[in-house]
Amino acid sequence: MKETFYGYCFPIPGEWHTPEATLQDTEEVYRYTQLHGKTGMFREVRVTDSEDFMVVQMIDGQYVFPEEWKKFNGEVKPDETAEESNEKTEDRNSPAEVKA
Length: 100
Prior knowledge:
By secondary structure, the chain is of the alpha+beta class.
């Protein structure tokens, strides 16, 4: 059976959150957290499993949980182009290889 995940965005951690977004796999979880956690619009992004256990947490654009996802916290340097940043990201393991 395929696992379903639910994403929530918090403008202020611990307060109100956006309606849940249903995510079908770890690749969608990764894309969701990157999109919503790196924009600066939301201070915290949480993803839970179907039993409401947190499986991924991002605060201020940085993964804080699980430990294995912290490797995706690579920072983009101001003089680095988007293309160079994408090349570095492609060199890392795919989030599909990391169990959420």
